Amino acid sequence: MRMRFSQLFLAFVITLALLIGLEIVTSTVLPALGWKEYRLTFNVLIILFLAIRMDSPLVPWLILALQMVHSIFSIEGWALGTLAGLIVMMSANFLKEVLHLTTAFMTMITVQLFQIIWYVTVTLVICLKISDFDKFGMILWSFIPGSILLSLISPVLFWMLGLIWRVPSEGGPRGVEI
């Protein structure tokens, strides 16, 4: 299925609005309720969706734009997230033919595996920046509880994003071409 530019623009604006809403909840409401130790990074889920379900040379640019919006709400730099997003996207493209997200369980497992790739990449870069690999495990572990919760939420978010981006069901063609 091919998307026209107007459909792409509308889907992206709706996705940005969803990301901003989720970022507001995770950066203001959850800390106010006492959840301060871990952060839910919904931008990772949205980027995973785009990487797995979209076939387009525009996906890296969409990832960059999503990371720029995410960086408004996070101290994580947009460049670090974009690098991790592109590595995850290339991994997903390499494995696209074997990724079948037909069940909620398979979606959760796939999302968790790609989040681990994402967080290992981010942790490696952070350790390189601070020149201290002794903290690798501690930094990586700080991402894991939030990633498990995100994996549990992922089937619902992927379903919503599938409606926004008009992605065909899993039995149809692989992804949406832009």
Descriptive report:
There is one protein chain. The chain is an all-alpha fold and 178 residues long. It has one domain (5-166). Helices cover 73% and strands 2% of the residues. It has helices at residues 5-32, 42-53, 59-73, 78-95, 104-130, 136-165, and strands at residues 54-55, 176-177. Strands 1-2 form a two-stranded parallel ribbon. Helix 5 packs across helix 6. The radius of gyration is 16 Å and the shape is globular.
Task: Outline the fold blueprint.
Layout: H1 5-32, H2 42-53, E1 54-55, H3 59-73, H4 78-95, H5 104-130, H6 136-165, E2 176-177
Parallel strand pairs: 1-2
Helix pairs in contact: 1-3, 2-3, 2-4, 2-6, 3-4, 4-5, 5-6
Features:
mainly alpha; 2 strands; 178 residues; 73% helix; two-stranded parallel ribbon; single chain
Quickly count the helices. 6
Strand content: under 5%
Radius of gyration: 16 Å
Cα-to-Cα separation, first versus last residue: 8 Å
- Tell how many strands the DSSP assignment holds: 2
Label the structural class.
mainly alpha
Order of helices and strands: HHEHHHHE
- The shape is globular
Characterize the largest beta sheet: strand count, sense, and whether it forms a barrel: 2 strands, parallel
Number of domains: 1
Low-confidence stretches: none
Determine the mean pLDDT.
86
State the helical fraction.
over 70%
Kindly report the spatial arrangement of strands forming the biggest sheet: 1-2
